[in-house]
Design a protein that fits this description.
It is built from 16 helices and 17 strands. The chain has helices at about 35-55, 80-90, 95-110, 125-140, 170-175, 220-230, 245-260, 290-295, 300-310, 320-345, 355-370, 375-390, 395-405, 415, 430-445, 450-460; strands at about 1-5, 10-15, 20-25, 60-65, 120, 145, 150, 190-195, 215, 235-240, 265-270, 275, 280, 315, 465-470, 470-475, 480-485. The structure holds adenosine monophosphate and zinc ion (ZN).
């Protein structure tokens, strides 16, 4: 598989250190505010990478942190801790704020059909590991103690600029947000441990350490947790493009200084979701949540489809029109897929050499698209070609089911694309959909009385359900809906 590596600024052949195992770490969210659809894009792209690696036969361990302490409003170690700020704004405790938004984060990711990471680790549950790492840096003279914080000394780490490809003086000129802290030796030195003094005297989250009460800086958590779960050298580390200039160089510096080994072999960075030409973000307050798009009648997977229409290294400008087009694209694809589903059970045909080669060709092209630095727009186009092709339904079904392991669009779920004559399950009135789902559950529970009651209610709403050996069939007026699999 070929991947663009930010470290070398080249597309390279990806091979893991210990095949077939792949260790993949993705920076999680700072849980002080709602998850928005900009985050959604980044985590869907991580999910696509993870699913693609699995599809290609790798055994992926995916680790993701939750930043619930230590992320200040400014990268220059200035201002408040985002969590403490969020707590003040909402009148809740920092712990309540972190719990609430962590839940919202994973709820949003679930809606977008993002696989849960193998390991989810919270910064506040790994304070010991962070302190141990800082101790190592102090022992090796890569860090120094000041009255307000322990800082990493970047002058001791000659490779500091290797990720963003500039030397330090150049970086200083492009980053005017970085100010020299009270006792910082170099403006780009960064905090490993903040002491509970001065502006942080009232900080609610704090722990004992060899340097007094305090709390860890943001960057150290990712080094401590990624190395704890994936070892000193990690195959792939991902993040949004904003992390190329500060957070990730800092992770590299502190990890490599501590271990003397290469920290990450492949750095993968995702481009932003924009709105009106500006980054969609919490701080600009120009964001939509997954719930906002649901409230306008879009299912979250339409958003996933929209993300897949643009390569992960290109910015994507969000508009309601583009989401609408994605919704139509997805529903049209599902309609075809569900007709495929319908006819795919009619038995297999013996295929001609020509048809076999055609099927093989689709499969190879799909694989080639994802192997080529995750060209998802191309992969999506191949799914469309398959859907519209003249290959037998059973083979279409198998190919699309196979591709959907990577796409995660639930293309063959009959409940999602339940259709005949252009009407999908999703087009049914919400109360009817709910009743159908409840009836399916009742049938699974063998609660025949409830199932019959629901059938009568559905009939009153104008839709007739008949059970058949192949599952229930739904009809309404002159329309016959495809059979529904329980
Ligand atoms: P945060 O909680 O702001 O630290 O963000 C968590 C992750 O989402 C980081 O990797 C960010 O780079 C990424 N992210 C934030 N905003 C966007 C956006 N508008 N588009 C894509 N990724 C984003
Ligand atoms: Zn991180």
């Amino acid at each position: 598989m070929k991947l663009y590596n930010t470290l070398t600024r080249k597309i390279e052949e990806f091979t893991p250190l210990h095949p077939p195992k792949v260790g993949m770490y993705t920076c999680g969210q700072t849980v002080y505010d709602y998850t928005h659809i900009g985050h959604g894009r980044k985590y869907v792209n991580d999910d696509i990478l993870r699913r693609s690696l699995s599809y290609l036969g790798f055994a992926v361990t995916h680790v993701q942190n939750v930043t619930d302490v230590g992320h200040l409003v400014s990268d220059a170690d200035e201002g408040e801790d985002k969590l403490e700020k969020g707590a003040k704004k909402s009148g809740k405790t920092v712990w309540e704020v972190a719990d609430f938004y962590t839940q919202h984060f994973y709820d949003s990711l679930d809606k977008l059909n993002i696989l849960r990471p193998t390991v989810i680790c919270k910064a506040t549950e790994h304070i010991t590991e962070q302190i141990e790492l800082i101790k190592k840096l102090m022992d090796k003279n890569f860090a120094y103690d000041t009255p307000e914080a322990i800082y990493f000394d970047i002058s001791k780490f000659s490779d500091y600029g290797k990720l963003f490809g500039q030397n330090l003086d150049e970086k200083q000129t492009v980053r005017d947000d970085v100010r020299k802290g009270e006792h910082k030796k170099h403006p780009l030195d960064f905090a490993l441990w903040f002491k509970k003094v001065g502006r942080f005297a009232d900080h609610a989250m704090h722990w004992k350490s060899p340097w007094g009460d305090g709390f860890p800086g943001w960057h150290i958590e990712c080094s401590a947790m990624s190395m704890k779960y994936l070892g000193k050298t990690i195959d792939i580390h991902t993040g949004g493009e904003d992390h190329i200039s500060v957070h990730h160089p800092n992770e590299i510096a502190q990890s490599e200084a501590a271990t003397g080994k290469q920290f990450v072999r492949f750095w993968v960075h995702h481009a932003f979701l924009m709105v009106d030409g500006r980054k969609m973000s919490k701080s600009l307050n120009n964001f939509y949540r997954v719930e906002d798009i649901e409230a306008k009648g879009f299912e979250p997977l339409a958003l996933r489809y929209l993300y897949l229409t643009t390569h992960y290294r290109k910015q994507l400008n969000f508009t309601w029109e583009s989401l609408n087009a994605a919704k139509e694209g997805l529903n049209n694809l599902r309609k075809i897929c569900c007709e495929v589903y319908e006819t795919s059970h009619t038995g297999r045909q013996t295929l001609s050499e020509e048809k076999l080669a055609k099927i093989q060709g689709y499969s190879e092209r799909f694989k080639a698209a994802i192997e080529n630095d995750l060209q998802m727009p191309e992969a999506l186009a191949i799914v469309w070609e398959v859907a519209k092709s003249n290959i037998p339904s059973s083979d279409k079904h198998d190919l699309i089911a196979d591709f959907d392991q990577v796409l995660g669009l639930d293309l063959l779920n009959p409940q999602k694309g339940y259709t005949l004559k252009g009407v999908t399950f999703l087009d049914l009135p919400e109360d009817v959909r709910q009743m159908i789902k409840s009836r399916e559950q009742a049938r699974k529970n063998q609660d025949w009385q409830l199932s019959d009651q629901l059938r009568d209610k559905i009939l009153k709403a104008g839709y007739k359900i008949e059970d058949s050996p192949n599952g229930p069939k739904l009809s309404a007026g002159n329309f016959n809906f495809a059979k529904m699999k329980s």
